[in-house]
Design goal:
Helix 1 crosses helix 3 and helix 4 crosses helix 5. The chain has a single domain, classed as 3-Layer(aba) Sandwich (Aminopeptidase), CATH 3.40.630.30. It is an alpha+beta fold. It has six helices and eight strands, in the order ββαααβββαβαββα. Strands 1-2-3-4-5-6-8-7 form an eight-stranded mixed sheet. Strand 7 and strand 8 form a beta hairpin.
Length: 197
């Protein structure tokens, strides 16, 4: 499956992407400094290669009718990261296992792992394409979550029309400093003003 929006392509994983993931989770991990730095990446090439090959084997069998929780981001023919989503409940907490009848919302996220493309608005476009995909496939409300030290993600969220709906004070500690956990709810009108602009 492939989604095109402006100069961004969201697509399913290819086998060639595996080596990018090996790099991103072993040697070129600067992107993780803003993702969740209180959860350090500690892995090796062989572990990552096996893990991502297994994921690729799973993903390549998905039909286009299956709603994706993850897409690769391609920009100018280059694989630069991914967008993904996860389920949260009415209290904005991550759901490990969805129970029958449970209220479930989607929270979206993005990781652009190549530092030389940061700050060009690529993330906002990729996330916008992903959000629109979810709206086209039945989602009614979209959320995103980050921490107060992730300034790039906060600016990206606000650009797309996300508004803070919960703040968890002193949610995490990074380099000896406390930061808040932020949950944003998407304002659809603001989103479509961005998306169609």
């Amino acid at each position: 499956m492939k989604i095109e929006y402006k100069d961004i392509i969201l697509r399913d994983m290819t086998e060639a992407d595996i080596e990018d993931y090996v790099r991103w989770f072993t040697t070129e991990i600067k992107w993780s400094d803003t993702d969740a730095p209180w959860e350090p990446i500690e892995s090796d090439e062989e572990t990552e290669r096996v893990s991502w090959h297994e994921y690729y084997e799973y993903a390549k069998e998905l039909s286009d009718n299956v709603r994706r929780w993850k897409f690769e981001i391609e920009w100018n023919g280059r694989h630069i990261g991914w967008v993904s989503s996860y389920p949260i409940d009415e209290n904005y907490e991550w759901i490990d296992e969805i129970r029958e009848g449970q209220t479930v919302y989607r929270a979206v996220g993005i990781d652009i792992c190549e530092p030389d493309v940061w700050g060009n608005g690529i993330g906002a476009k990729a996330l916008a394409a992903f959000i629109n995909y979810y709206f086209e496939n039945g989602a009614d409300e979209i959320y995103c979550q980050t921490w107060s030290g992730n300034i790039r993600m906060i600016k990206c969220a606000e650009k797309l029309g996300f508004e803070v709906c919960r703040r968890k004070i002193d949610y995490c500690e990074v380099n000896g400093e406390k930061y808040d956990g932020l949950t944003f709810r998407l304002n659809k009108e603001k989103f479509y003003n961005y998306f169609n602009g």
